[in-house]
């Protein structure tokens, strides 16, 4: 095993053919945010930016060597400025732009829509326990890992994992396939937001009251399906989705959502081809506007009647849910969706950072910002859930009291008329009274994707100037979604360009063709059963594949690239060595946790089965249905079409078949960084030897010894 692992690691350093680096093809839509180093005297962000303050603890001040310079400093702090640099390498124009772009990439619809939905679905506050546990052992460590490996190897996802080992290049392809699958159904949410946004400009919101059903003689009644449910539910299920009774009955094509999907894909293409991201000012709007709207809704929400009941429901854990492995699966998956892990986007983003950027501080800052945003959005949503539940509960009590009052009045009138009915008979004639339970209303007040489209629309109906609030809310959802959507799809385009599948096709043409293909496929969501197909994609296209991809990312870094080698690289870039906790997570905790969740979830699905919630028009509620056989086949395809790339590329490489073209290594001034930070060779500690079996020569034990003594020196000055 030692020889095999050593050969795998060596192959990543030797077998790469000299050619133009794949990193020049990464993330072209960021050109406006990024600036090209032009070699003149004007400083840019990063290695050549005088405004970039290095705060590493081991910074040396005033020392200039023959290979590196310390640029002019502010307040006595030295600036890292290597004499050589990477040719044609783009970089962020400021640290703030990178942070806002990363937060904007991570903070999306999942924070406002998915997190509150999962919290409600999995027992309210009980979901917060596995959520924060997964954040500590999976979320932040893998976020840190992706930022660090991207900044060190300075390539996109495919290029990074192909350089770690050509046999691991399938990890990057798997990330691209997952991004494609997620982009398909994610744009459907944007289409729904567009539909609601347009409907919000009516003089009266169409979901404010039940529509009337007219007869030939001019008389009318309220729509029975709306009466049995609520106006917001009716507008969502019947008007917007035109939902069918089950997934096997697509009924008519939903032309309204079909048109909204076409418009959504056109907007995505315009964002990618014209480059909304090309203006540095846009990121300030897209990253801050959702917070402004959330703050406004927060102050409105805490003034609503019943908000305390909703918040109590959010923060009170139901301990029995912790034994459900699906809860842990969805908590771990939400971390990936929320932080944007395993999609490949973070690796590409960090590859444009300066080589001495403090990626560890960025990882913690962005991760916590993102998760507290989810919590803040959850508070806003659950305050509204409490309001809606309280209103439903009070309506139930009013109906119950009115029924009792009417029965008592009829009984009194009968008794005064000397009715032959006995007291027993009158008791038997008592009508059925509705069951009023506030806790039940809190549990059932939201279902599936309708949380944002039912709960918030219910709250908006109660606001003065409801049209303004509706426009504001759905504009927020639209900006959240569109910013993440074209970034996700750009990862797919970049992967196709990296693999040189169509070398003679211009990127803008390739992007247009891809958007057209996606638009056609996404029409499968624009019919009566489309919402059920959406649920299938939402549950399986990302959940399992993202966990598997992130698992292999940890294996690639900890067991192939080498944990000591990775820690040495981080020390070179940041000036400080990663804490022992991060090393334990990367090598043991993170991959073990993901593996346990996967196994337990598979067992749970095999034992209990899997299904979806179907709308029952006559009852005005949803009922659980099992997936049909073709649905189970589609689930298997969605999972395997992405993760199978990992073993396929590995096997092909073993037999000499080159799926991904190798590229030259990116520039990395290891000697300059070592001199700048004053780093001395790291002596292996007793804890590292006991925990990771790291030996004095740099090799590592536990199944796969890696990171030989010459591994760092071989790549000190790659150019």
From TrEMBL:
Chain segments annotated as transmembrane: 96-115, 127-147, 168-198, 252-270, 282-302, 331-352, 364-385, 471-497, 509-537, 543-563, 584-607, 627-655
Q: What is its main location?
A: membrane
Q: Name one GO molecular function term.
A: symporter activity
Query: Sorted alphabetically, which keywords does the UniProt record give?
Result: Glycoprotein, Membrane, Metal-binding, Sodium, Symport, Transmembrane, Transmembrane helix, Transport
Which GO terms of the cellular component aspect does the record hold?
plasma membrane
Record membrane topology: Multi-pass membrane protein
The UniProt annotation places Na(+) binding at 104, 106-107, 111, 338, 370, 480, 483-484
Q: Which InterPro entries match?
A: Na/ntran_symport (IPR000175), Neutral_aa_SLC6 (IPR002438), SNS_sf (IPR037272)
GO terms under biological process: amino acid transport; sodium ion transmembrane transport
Enumerate the subcellular locations listed in this protein's record, separating them with semicolons. Membrane
Q: Which family does it belong to?
A: Belongs to the sodium:neurotransmitter symporter (SNF) (TC 2.A.22) family.
Which protein, by its recorded name, is this?
A: Transporter
Organism of this sequence: Frankliniella fusca
